[in-house]
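Exercise 3.2. Students should predict the tertiary structure of the chain below and write it as structure tokens, then compare their answer with the key that follows.

Predict this chain's 3D structure.
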Amino acid sequence: MSPTPFPATGLAAHGWDDSLDAAFAEHRAAGLVPCRVIRVDRGRCDVVTEHDRPRAATERGLDPCTGDWAALRPGDPRDEPRLVALLARRTAIVRASAGSDSRGQVLAANVDTAAIAVSLAGPLDTGRLERLLALAWESGARPVVALTQADRAADPEAMAAEAAAAAPGVDTVTTSAVTGEGLDVLATLLTGTVVLLGVSGAGKSSLANALLGADLLATGGVRAGDGKGRHTTVRRELIPLPGGGVLIDTPGLRGVGLHDAADGIEHVFAEIEELAGDCRFGDCAHESEPGCAVQEAIAAGDLAPRRLASYRKLLRENAWAASRTDARLRAELQGRWKTIKRSQRAAYRLRDQGR
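Answer key:
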């Protein structure tokens, strides 16, 4: 599939289309200007409008992310440019927050293609690949697996086959930013707004520079002591691609917790979901039940036991994350009722004092 280039100027170069224009009508009537968030830094946003790239403050209560479409109040002598509203997100890459908060963290908004960078310079972590694929599928974007650093791989063909087995139904391309291998093929798969996801040291920034045709992003190697990647991308940034569309590079993900990703997990393990439909019992746990089609597939060599183990692990994690969210929502609801009751008691006291 070849990309449909955005025109090379103005908002259209960043993905603006007729449906967004229609959704913005009310904001335009209020004198606001459409823009896209290209970077968020310390409470302020760099945005692009049809004719400018201002830095804007953010209205209280908004939580913009790179890739968001927004309504901008232009600056004047009394106030700086300010984001006052966000348009509804078509898609969003969301992971579980790193702290105790059960809310999800949005990594990128309005993404069409999620390119997952996986290095071939070391052993392949198929479990991490499956986790990133679940994140991508859940977002609503189309995932593509970019196998990077093929020039440093011991056996790139075998590793590519292993990665493809962990990503059924997903285009998997072997690439090298050094030799140029696979870059043309990959470029044809990256359409619309593209986000690059992967761990530190996966070669994301080198791959991004190769796709951009210029060294616009800092790159770095891995630490000699432990082989872990250095963080060269420190914030998410949106950059137009020369062939059309835009690219969002993200900092390396050390941890990728899933957040409300049941549909994404089903996509990643579609073969297990399909087999489960043939199990004798509807609530089959795929362990030792008679007539379990999943275990029969494992016994026949048609399904790797590792795939079932990974599937179960991600389901458990997603269920635990959902329970945290439910607990937070219950706590928030209790807090609201306590506030209402306190207000009622105060009103009753004032009423009694007035008698």
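Discussion points: Confidence is low (pLDDT under 50) at residues 1-8, 222-231. The first helix runs from residue 18 to 23.
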